[in-house]
Each structure stands twice: as C-alpha cells, then as structure tokens.
Specification:
Chain lengths: 738, 229
C-alpha cells in the first residue's frame, strides 16, 4: 500500500492523538504493521473515551434497559419507546460540554444540531427540545459570557429548525468555573413500524453522503472532548464545529421525505468523528466491509487530505445505505431541498474499511478487530465517604430573620431564580402543539402532531446531592424525573442519561461515577423506568479541579390526552392546598442550608423508592381523574418554596394555617417523594379518602387566598415581593455585562 | 374560503397556519412550494413564519425573490388577500407589498412570550371580528421584529388607518414599555393602503384553541372565512 504524502507514524504521534503506549501496541498487533497516518487518526478517534466508552461501559451495562414499553434500548442513535396506537417516541440527551466552554455560541448550537440528528436519523420528526445547563459561579469573570453565548447558540439553532424548546434546568456552582455543562435533549415521534436503524446490509449496496459539504472544522473534536482542560484550552477553538440550522431544517425535511419511500437500508448521522464513526459503525453492525472513494465526498475546501476528510466533524451530514437502484429517487429528494447528494462508496464482503483517493489507497484495515479491540477499562474506584449527619439544632429558625426575608433570599438565589431571561429566547410554541413550557408545570408538555395524546418531558439532577453521596444522588435524579412526570399526570416511560463527570483515572472520581450508576440502576428498576439511551462526558476537569458529579436524567412520560395535564399555578381562590408525602425535615445539602446558613454539608435526603412509586402513582391517578387543579413536586428549597412558586405562577396567595409553629426542617427540608396539590374545596375530602385508601400520607396545608402567603404568626409575605426578587436576579445579572 | 400557504426552505410555522386555517374554514389549504410559478385559484395567500433561507441575509430578503413571489405580488395587485405572519411579514415587506422594514430586535435577542395588542382598525376582513380598541393576547417569537419606516410614512400609515395592531399593556397602556422589539410607534402589524394585505409579527395562528389556552387569534381567521366565503 502506498503511503505517499502521509507523515510517518510513530509512538510519539500516537500519544499526540490521545492513544496510550499499550493502545498503540495493540494497533500494531492487529494490523501486523505500522498504521498509516490516516489509519492512526481513525483508530485514535474510535478508541477515544468519547466514542468507545472505555472507562464507563463496564458500569453502564448494569443499568436496566428493558421493559414492555422499550422498542430499542441503548446502542442505536437514540432510544425508542412505545407510545401506543402504533406511535413510537424516540429520544436522547447528549452533552456538548467541551466545545461550549471553548466557543459557547457554536458549541451549544451544534450540540442541539447533533442531538436533533440522532433522533430524526431514526425516522422521527423532532417535536420537543430541552436542555440542562450548568455554569460556574456568577462571580466568575467568564460566567456571563458563557451564559449569554450558550443560550444564544441554543436559541439560534433550535428556533431556526422549528422545534419548540419546552424546558430544562440551569444551575450555577463554582465547580463548573472551568467546565460548563451543556446537555441537550430531543424528543421525536415516529410510527413504530417505520423506525430506521444503522446496521448496514446488502453487499454492493451504495453508500450515500447527504447534507452539507465537508470542511476542516472539528477535526479531532472527539479526542479533544476526551481530555482535561488546561490553561491553553482556548487554543483548541479550531476543533469546535460551526452549525447551520437552516441546512439542518432542510436535512430533517429531506430525510423524512426519503423515509416515506422504501429506498433506505440503513442511515446514521455523522456526529463525533464524522465519516469515520458513521462508516465504521454502520459496516461493523452489519458485519460487512465498506469501501469509500473520498474524491466523491462533497468538499467545502480545496486540497483536503483523506485524514482530514475522515476526521472532519462538519455538521449537518448523514450517511445512508440505499437499496440498489434507488439512487435516483433519493437524489431527486435531496436536490429538491438543495442539499448535496453523492454516492461515495459501496458495501463489501471483506469486513474491511478501505479508503481510496487520487487513485491511491490510504486505509485498508479490518473493522471488527479494531472495533472489538477498543480498550475496555475496569478503572480503580473508591466509594465516597458518608457525610456526617447535621446537628438537631439546625432545625430551629434563625433569630433575627423573618420568614419573608428567608424565603425572599432563597427564591432569588441563582439556582432558584426565574430563568425567564433564558427561556424567552427559545421558541417554545412553534408547531402549535405546546401545552406547557418552562415555568408553567413540572414537565414540558406537547401533544403529538394531529393527535390529542401528549408527552411530558423533564430533565433532572441535583449535583450537590451527588457530590455528597453519589448513590443517593443518582437515585434522586431518577426519582425526581419520575415525580415531575407524575405531577403533570404523565406515566413515566423511560430515561436517557447524560453522565457528566471528572477524570475517571482518579479513583475518587471513578467512585462518583460507579456510585451514581448504582443509585440510578436501583431507582430505574424500582420505578420500571428503564434507560434507553445516553451519553457519557468524562474529563470535565480544569487544572485538576473536577465538576460536581452530574448524572443528568432526561425522561419522557405519556399522557392519554395532553389537555388533562396539570400545571403548577394556583388557579382559583379558596382551593384546598394539600401536602402529599411524609415530612421528616431533612436539611442536609438543602438550599436553605447553603443560602441562609452558608453551609454545604450533611448527607442529601434519603430516597425511598417504594414510597416514590406509591406517591407518584397516587398523584398521577388523581390528576387523571380530574381532581387536581395545581400540582408541583417538592424539590429545591422545600415545602415553603414550592408553595411560593405555585403562588407566583398563578398570582394567587395562600393562607397556610397548617404550618403554624413549623420549624426550618418542616418549611425548607428537602425530603423526597412529596408533592403540593391544590384541589377544589368540594373535592378535598374525596382526595383525602383516596390517599388514606392508598396508604399515602396527606396533610391539609391551608387555602389559596389573596395576594400573599399568610398564616404563620400573622406575617404576610406578598407575592409581589417574592416575584420581584425571583424575576430580578438573572436579568439584573446579565444586564451588568451589557 | 380557499387559501394557499407558501412554503420556503426554512419555513417552520406552516403547519400552525394550516391547522388554524383548516379549523376556521373546514377546508385544507394548498401548500405551495416556493419554486412553483403558479398559484391555484384562492381567496387568501398566507406567507408563514420561520427562517426562510436561514435568514442569513436580511430576514425575508432571499425569499422575496423566490419564483412564487412574482405570482403572489400579481395576485395581491388583483386584490387577493395576503397575510404575512412573522417571517411572512418580513418577506412581503421585502417584496414591496408593505412599506418599511423589519430590523433586529432592539435588545438584540430572540423573544418568545405572549404580548398584548390593541386592534387599531377593524375595517378589514382580517380584523372585522374584533372591536376597535380591543386588547388581545397573541404570542410573539422572533428576532427581527423591530418595524421601522421614515417619519413621513408613519404619519401616512396612521392617517390612512394602515396600522393594524400596536403593542400595549394588558390594560391598554401604550407608553412603549410593552413593546418586545423596539418597533417604531409600538407597531405590531400594518395593512397596505387598500387593507387587502396584512403583515404582523405576532402569531394569531398559535392562539386559536382551548388547547393553546388562548383563542384570541381565532376571530382573525373567522373574519377572513366570513368575508371571503
């Protein structure tokens, strides 16, 4: 084989490409020779953490991934669940952390583009987007710029493609100062008998490239995303891709149009590691070989080498295996949408990846041995030591502070303040199918196009819990997602996980990962809430400082009728306010502890999965019976903050006679498995009866009433005051940058 | 009423428009691809929202030169009603069916929220089902809604009753604080001189059912059906 114009490969070069010496040696062994420069590039991305899951796979395998509702679990571009009546819901959440820190606008934008492609490549029309964002301390000099760029990038991409962004979450913590998290989720709908997969089939079938042209952007993006940051990370800007949402919109329409025909054998988007991973994965899954002629790849720049073409992460591109003779049908559709279309190769029976260009062969290596030899590590790990319980006296309300002052401070803290400044930049209404978006309900709710049936979508994680106790934190993230879906009346179907952690080569960090997986697995099992897709982002460290362990959970639930979903806002005067679930007053790792007492200690609240299930099933049941006017699960900030949010959302206050004499634990504790409901007064007795019958603790807190929260010793906390504090923080903070 | 909805590469609210038209008229509108050169016989042409051609040039500037726009202009000249919503407003303004221009929002950010509008003129099939001065709630979702024209033209628009909607408070206050994009004189939508063409930034098509939790956009479509059937 000729290797003209290719630099000479060496161990040193392999190291620069992110391979260890052991990995380089196994490459030599598999090939029986030194790889070419192009081959080395391909092997290094295939074996990168980002593409191979080499540190995480052993533990990911322990997650439950099956259930009667699961049509396709992890391993494909996205997970697929059954939504009844022949409908399938396809969804996944994926990180774009490293690129978003280096270039926030394009990094976040292409994160949205990538996850959209993962979903529509399987045949689904995307119907909802969500995002989970974590930024550094508001005081850090880069935070404003990052918030501004990430939000604008998500808006730029999501708004243009015409997919409503219906919710998400945003946290701030100094641990993310050097590594922000941008986790984007897309949910789509398809017909259950029209799902498209990525396994190639049919020797000789044409391999087709569609979408944008290939440029030099994003080369070695996957390798960059598999390393820690240091001072010179800003120099990595050229590894960040540039997104074109207009082309993506055309690509969605063109692919869905092609999927209406019978021309497609297999299809996959070119995501991380571009043409390399798509061609290798498609051929590998089909047990076939693939031969590509790179001269035929549509190119944006002149003089690109095979190495550059194979490793480019140019966006908005797909690889399709067509049935023989269907090229003209497909070409006509892509030409109508003014997209590039090129036959760039064919499937072979020799199991090899062969790359030709300028009449020369640049790569000729067996696919299965290289894929199978992708290293798998059982990294050493150590469990996180248990945090000491808090002293009992912490439950007393502090002297010298009114309850109004405390509540005002919590609802205005960066984690809890209204994110209106963010979500108003997202088109949450396009398609006309949105029932609830950010700030209106515990989950975003959209109906399926042309149907009354709806889905609820949520993203959840409480990283401060995960740091203190990864097992509990992992279980809590899943339980909270279950609760948020149940609160709106949706039946939780399945989960997508986006595991964001530090450097797995450190036993402490690996222990966080292992613990979170254990907690998640327990919760998913107990709640019949399998994991159907996911993504792992490791090495989120800068100069040795790791992020908080952040196993972000995205989840989808089903509503027989989207109109029956219930939001958080109080709607009427005189409704009875009920507390569902048991209150112990757990203050460890609570927002109250952090914001009012300036402490971040204690264990996070325990999660009783049987109780979660029982209480969630109960709340969902009475929402579906039409007995509930307003519904909100109790999470960050505890009971009083939950009631305050319902009051702020509805502009109606509450008389909380049921909380007379309550201490800080009762008011602000973050015990799990709880909800606050408002029901019409004539329905309150029936709901209490039903709760009793179901063995669910229920307490009357008071009544919706007036324009303030009242009832504890006569102190009236006006909604206007809380709302002002809650709404003012983020716009005020961002305005200071302008 | 027979209607056509024009689809450009990058249109994304055509389905919302089709649903609203179909609900009001009982008839499915024709979807017309931008590269077509002929329109079916219709009573209304709707140019929907989205990001035609990505709006990478000035919003609507590329779409205004699509083949179908020659036919849309010819039909408009014959008195066929034309409704441009959001990107559609930008496109028909770029095409010269309406005066002025739509610039980047004053705060330079995309904005999606529900706003209050005052109906300024009910002497048109678009607004006949509203009361003059009625306050309605429509959602907005745009980055380039900052309407501008020269001072002379504004006077003319006002004098001739060509201002259709203005951004106001829920109580109808027009002190400029309720304007989501910085548009001149709080203008949200305008007519042509004959009031046969309406362009507006807000989205009446996303406020037509109990499901939307808002039916304030429904009279606009009902009014068209009543006038044009």
């Amino acid at each position: 084989m000729t290797t003209a114009q290719q630099p000479e490969v060496s161990l040193e070069m392999a190291r620069e490409f992110g391979l260890s010496e052991g990995e380089y040696n196994s490459a030599l062994e598999i090939l029986g020779r030194k790889p070419t420069y192009t081959e080395l590039g391909i092997i290094s991305v295939m074996w990168s953490e980002h593409c191979s899951y080499k540190s995480s796979k052993k533990w990911l395998m322990t997650l439950p991934t099956t259930g009667p509702q699961v049509i396709c679990g992890p391993g494909e571009n996205a997970g697929v669940v059954d939504a009844g009546d022949g409908d399938a819901i396809i969804f996944k959440m994926e990180s774009h952390n490293h690129p978003s820190y280096i270039e926030p606008f394009q990094g976040a934008a292409t994160g949205v583009g990538g996850i959209l492609r993962d979903v529509f490549t399987m045949g689904a029309r995307p119907i909802a987007n969500m995002n989970a964002l974590r930024f550094g301390s508001p005081d850090h000099p880069k935070t404003r710029h990052l918030v501004s760029g990430v939000v604008a990038g998500i808006a730029h991409y999501g708004n243009c493609v015409g997919v409503p962004t219906i919710g998400g979450e945003t946290n701030f913590h100094p641990a993310y100062n050097g590594n922000i998290l941008v986790n984007a989720m897309t949910v789509g709908v398809a017909k259950a008998d029209r799902i498209f997969y990525s396994a190639a089939a049919g020797i000789g079938n044409p391999v087709v490239y569609v979408g944008s042209k290939t440029g030099r952007d994003g080369i070695h993006g996957a390798t960059m995303a598999s390393a820690e940051f240091s001072e010179d990370s800003e120099e990595k800007r050229p590894t960040v891709q540039v997104g074109d949402p207009f082309t993506e919109k055309l690509l969605i329409e063109a692919c869905l149009e092609l999927m209406e025909t019978d021309a497609i054998v297999a299809i996959q988007d070119m995501g991380a590691a571009g043409l390399t991973s798509s061609s290798v994965e498609m051929a590998g899954k089909g047990g076939l070989g693939i031969e590509l002629v790179l001269d035929d790849v549509p190119m944006r720049e002149e003089g690109m080498t095979p190495y550059e073409i194979m490793l480019s992460e140019s966006q908005e591109r797909m690889l399709i295996i067509l049935k023989p003779g269907r090229e003209d049908v497909a070409r006509a559709i892509f030409e109508k949408w003014e997209l590039d279309f090129a036959v760039i190769g064919h499937l072979t029976d020799n199991g090899k990846l062969v790359i030709k260009m300028h009449g020369q062969t640049w790569c000729d290596m067996p696919i299965a041995p290289v894929s199978n030899a992708s290293p798998l590590y059982d990294r050493p790990w150590e469990p996180t030591p248990a945090a000491a319980e808090l002293e009992e006296s912490v439950r007393a309300l502090p002297a010298g502070k009114t309850l109004g002052d405390i509540l005002e401070k919590i609802v205005a803290c960066p984690d809890q303040a209204s994110k209106r400044w963010i979500w108003e930049q997202y088109d949450s209404l396009v398609n006309g199918d949105t029932r609830y978006m950010s700030g209106q309900a515990d989950a975003g709710v959209v109906r399926l196009p042309g149907q009354t049936k709806g889905i609820a979508v949520t993203t959840d994680c409480t990283p401060r819990y995960c740091l203190a106790d990864p097992v509990r934190g992992g279980a809590q993230a899943v339980a909270e997602a279950f609760r948020n879906l149940s609160a709106v009346g949706a039946l939780p179907l399945a989960v997508t996980d986006n595991m964001n952690f530090g450097n797995p080569e450190k036993p402490r960090i690996m222990g966080q990962f292992v613990g979170a997986i254990q907690g998640m697995a327990d919760a998913c099992r107990a709640l019949d809430f399998p994991v159907v897709s996911g993504n792992v982002s490791l090495y989120n460290e800068t100069n040795g400082e790791a992020i908080l362990p952040t196993p972000a959970i995205g989840a989808v639930g089903l509503l027989p009728d989207a109109v029956m979903a219930v939001g958080i806002a109080f709607k009427n005067e005189g409704d009875t306010i009920l507390l569902i679930g048991e209150t112990q007053g757990h203050l460890g790792q609570s927002l109250y502890l952090r914001e009012i007492l300036g402490r971040e200690d204690g264990p996070p609240p325990p999660v009783d999965l049987a109780v979660e299930r029982r209480n969630g099933d109960f709340v969902r049941g009475i929402v579906r019976e039409g007995l509930v006017v307003s519904s909100h699960d109790i999470q960050d900030g505890g009971l009083l903050v939950t009631v305050a949010e319902m009051a702020m959302a509805g502009g109606i206050g509450a008389n909380l006679s049921g909380l007379d004499g309550a201490d800080a634990g009762t008011l602000f504790g973050e015990d799990q498995g709880r909800y606050v409901l408002a029901v019409r007064p004539d329905k309150a007795a029936a709901v209490q009866e039903k709760a009793k019958a179901a063995g669910v603790p229920v307490t009357v807190l008071g009544k919706t009433n007036g324009t303030a929260l009242t009832g504890r010793g006569g102190e009236a906390i006006t909604i206007a005051r809380l709302k002002k504090a809650n709404e003012a923080w983020l716009p005020g903070y961002m305005a200071a940058a302008e | 009423m027979k209607a056509a909805v024009i689809v450009f590469p990058g249109s994304n609210r055509e389905r919302d428009a089709v649903a609203a038209l179909e609900a009001a008229s009982g008839t499915k509108p024709h979807l017309v691809w931008h590269r077509d050169t002929e329109l079916p016989k219709v009573d209304l042409i709707l140019v929907p929202g989205g990001f035609s051609y990505g709006d990478y040039l000035r919003s609507g500037a590329m779409a205004a030169h699509s083949p179908i726009m020659r036919e849309v202009k010819a039909r408009a000249d014959q008195g066929v009603r034309v409704l441009g919503i959001c990107n559609g407003f930008q496109i028909i303004t770029e095409a010269g069916l309406l005066p002025g221009a739509l610039m980047r929002n004053a705060k330079l950010k995309f904005v999606c929220r529900t706003v209050h509008l005052r109906v300024e003129n009910t002497d048109s099939p678009f607004t006949a089902k509203y009361r003059k001065g009625q306050i309605v709630r429509y959602p907005v979702a745009h980055g380039d809604g900052n309407y501008w024209t020269d001072a002379e033209a504004v006077k003319r628009l006002d004098g001739e009753g060509q201002v259709a909607f203005r951004y106001v408070s829920d109580a109808g206050r027009d002190d400029g604080l309720w304007n989501p994009n910085g548009s001149l004189d709080d203008i949200a939508g305008i007519f042509n001189a004959k009031r046969t063409v309406l362009g507006l930034m807000p989205h009446p098509e996303d406020a037509v059912s109990a499901f939307h939790g808002n039916t304030d956009g429904k009279p606009l479509f009902d009014g068209l059906v009543e006038a044009l059937s």
